[in-house]
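Recall from the previous lesson that a structure prediction takes nothing but the amino acid sequence as input. Here we apply that procedure to Na(+)/H(+) antiporter subunit C from Glycomyces artemisiae. The sequence below is the only information supplied.
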Amino acid sequence: MIPNLVYVVVVGVLIGAGVTLLLERTLTRVLIGVVLVGNGVNVLILTGSEFGTPPIVGETPEDGMSDPLPQAMILTAIVITLGITAFLLALAYRSQQLLGHDEVQDDAEDRRIIDLAERDEGPDAKESGDDDLPHPVYHCAPGKEGR
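The prediction returns the following tokens.
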């Protein structure tokens, strides 16, 4: 079976736009990117499967039935995408409530790596030059000091 060119273009656009949005720093764009990639994969699975009559035993001959496995995979992918979407939506909502925005923040180690890159030093640079860079601060639970 040769897939229709329209489906191929739709899959490419959905996955391309989804990956582009996944690379953004705001959680709402990441959320939309996950939904687009999920829908693109669902259309890809649907396009790759063979068309046929509904797989109802006794009503149609076996050679004319469509394979139910792609349909089951699409339903499973829809449920997984729904769960990931709900989790990311809750994360974005909580970030908006606590910080006033939903942009992902850099941590101390990210800032340290950015400082190394700006100074044109790679990760294999001498350790003696790292004294003036900020080091990550790790907080431990109360009463767990020194362990």
